[in-house]
Amino acid sequence: MGCDVVTEGTLSALLGIRVEGFDAEGNGEVSMPLDSRHLNVMGNAHGGAIFTLADMAFAAGCRGAGILCVSAQCSISYLLPGTCGPLRAKASPVRLGRTLAVYDIMVYDGEGRNIAKAVMTGYVLKKLDCGDAHD
Question: Which of 2, 10, 97, 107 is the most buried (most CB within 10 A)?
Fold first, then answer.
């Protein structure tokens, strides 16, 4: 696997998730439109779509930190219904260790309201050799 966050042919691609950016400190940001693909029967953003967006923010943050992780644990709290898009998720590292990476992820709706908060712990598989990966 290279140093890009790969989405082609994945669930993230089907949901229209875009990587907006990441940095060497391990922060990551992603966005997702909110259309009929993303809704539950009540017409709000589906919890699974919100979770996937948070997971991709985690992946972008790990990519920025130059590590390849697999999820080891996650908890998510849904705070408000997502009623307008696009949705955005921002991941910030709490701790980047040798074997574990712990992140806080906040998910926002199109009006900037915080609709979910996740805490994700990833098991570090390897350091990525990206050359100058943090442009």
Answer: 107
Domain edges within the chain: 11-127
8 A C-beta contact, residue 109 and residue 83: yes
At position 62, the amino acid (one-letter code) is: C
- For residues 117 and 106, the answer to whether their CB atoms sit within 8 Å is yes
Residues in CB range of 67: below 8 A, 6 or more apart:
96, 101, 122, 124, 125, 126, 127, 128
What tokens appear for 4 in the block? 């890009």
- Tokens found for residue 111: 């009006």
Place of tokens 């050359």: 131
Encode pLDDT of 50-69 as tens digits: 999 999 999 999 999 999 99
Lookup: tokens for 57? 């923010």
Q: Which CATH fold would you assign to the domain 11-127? A: Thiol Ester Dehydrase; Chain A (3.10.129)
